[in-house]
Amino acid sequence: MSLPDLKRKKLLARLYRRYNRRSYVSPDPLECLYRFDEVKDRELAALIAACLAYGRVAQIVKSVSAVLNVMGPSPHDFICSGTPARFEKEFAGFRHRFADEVHLGALLAGMRQVLLAYGSLNACFVEGLRKKDPTVIPALSAFVDRLNADAGGIGHLLADPRKGSACKRLNLFLRWMVRKDSVDPGGWAGIPRAKLVVPLDTHMHAIGLALGLTRRQQADCVTAVEMTQGFACFSPRDPVKYDFALTRFGIRQEMKVDDLIRMADCA
């Protein structure tokens, strides 16, 4: 391992130890998941939170909280006992950026169909995961297909990796549900952490460029995989472990991406 790699490894380890803590979660839609002890409820809350995770983080948390408050203490019971018509009625007037009650109702209807067919989102996802797949990307495509199968109208709330998207929100959802540590609550089984892909957006892309994990200028699926492979050099069994600590820079007001880039330059 070259000296620069040793420096990057030490920097990542230091950031993980310092910032991978519950005290650094807020503001983040992840905080909405902590209220659910049952995995059957948490996985549904997590998918809703991830699908709405675009725009200003304060508004994301507000929108996710509003949806979960309507659903009550058990999102699982709410969704399983509902119908597409009831979902749209319950969330009449809902709006989050480009999403309205039609998009949200379609998402909940798709989740309901998956629950009826597979028993859980976890079981549905695992069915699409093959041992030979190096990452979760093919399984993500199958998962999106099953959610969309009987619920047209979900639209932009579910990205499709086959179109080249980095699928930041879906990879964020998987990080929350597959990993378990001080911040990620976990709960899912049957998915190796080594297959996860870093949730890539413009901020994480800038961090990847600064750390030398990619030279690609597009924040797309290819870049997400390339950066994940870079992180795997330092944590092969859990390459996404650094995501939370790194993304505090740019989310929390007192932590700027430029500060992290300067830290990388000085490492």
From TrEMBL:
This is TIGR02757 family protein. InterPro entries: CHP02757. It comes from the Bacteria.
